[in-house]
Design a protein that fits this description.
Elements (H helix, E strand, L loop, with lengths): L1 H12 L5 H6 L4 H4 L8 H7 L5 E3 L3 E3 L16 E2 L5 E2 L24 E5 L16 H7 L3 E5 L1 E3 L4 E3 L3 E6 L4 E3 L7 E3 L4 E5 L2 E2 L6
Parallel strand pairs: 5-6, 6-9, 7-10, 8-11, 9-12, 10-13
Antiparallel strand pairs: 1-2, 3-4
Length: about 200
């Protein structure tokens, strides 16, 4: 009986509230108001729009994982473990699947996808094509190549600016003798990480 009474006394004396509770009950200011610079994200946005996230109700930061990342845009699209926005360093960090040399993530609408086994003609992420030339004809400025592509169509770039990116191990080859890719006229083409193999001719 004494042990039961002691347990009740100990329970009544416990007033510490967990961060999980406060995350679920943000309006409970009596228990969850922090001693720092903020209580809600709106407090931070009002005082400094460049630091719009209230972290643990103590400080204002740029971003917080997993989903409070609206401030991470442009050339700093990735929220780091330090709650600061950074440039992307790999394609996997971008929802579009392409990290540009500027540190920005490419817009999905700017990318044509070429994938091993692809049969699409629009070269979208959901319906990738299997030919670099078909991707060129789609007219988007960025081409992303995934897998081992065997393509006997000559990819001929004669105008416009294009950037070709590839996933690790991606390659482009032919099944018959001939050139794989040509750049002529006023075209400008940048190729990163794509292996070209098995070509013959000029």
């Amino acid at each position: 009986m004494k042990a039961w009474a002691f347990s009740l006394l100990a329970l009544g004396a416990c007033t510490k509230v967990s961060a999980t509770y406060c995350d679920k009950h943000p309006d409970d200011l009596e228990r969850c108001a922090g001693s720092g610079a903020c209580v809600f994200d709106s407090d931070c946005a009002a005082s400094d729009p460049s630091l719009p996230v209230c972290l643990d109700r103590t400080s204002c930061v740029q971003c917080a994982l997993p989903d409070r990342t609206s401030a991470c845009t442009g050339t700093t699209p990735v929220c780091g473990a330090d709650n600061t926005c950074h440039a992307c360093a790999s394609h996997d960090e971008c929802g579009s699947g392409v990290c540009l040399s500027s540190g920005a993530c490419a817009a999905a609408s700017d990318i044509s996808h070429v994938q091993e086994g692809g049969t699409g003609v629009d070269c979208t992420s959901g319906a990738p094509c299997g030919s670099l030339e078909v991707a060129r004809q789609a007219g988007r400025p960025i081409i992303k190549v995934t897998g081992a592509i065997t393509d006997d169509k000559l990819a001929s770039f004669n105008a416009g600016s294009f950037q070709i990116f590839a996933t690790a191990g991606a390659r482009l080859s032919r099944s018959t003798p001939g050139p794989l890719l040509e750049v002529k006229g006023t075209a400008s083409v940048t190729i990163a990480d794509l292996r070209l193999t098995g070509a013959a001719g000029d």
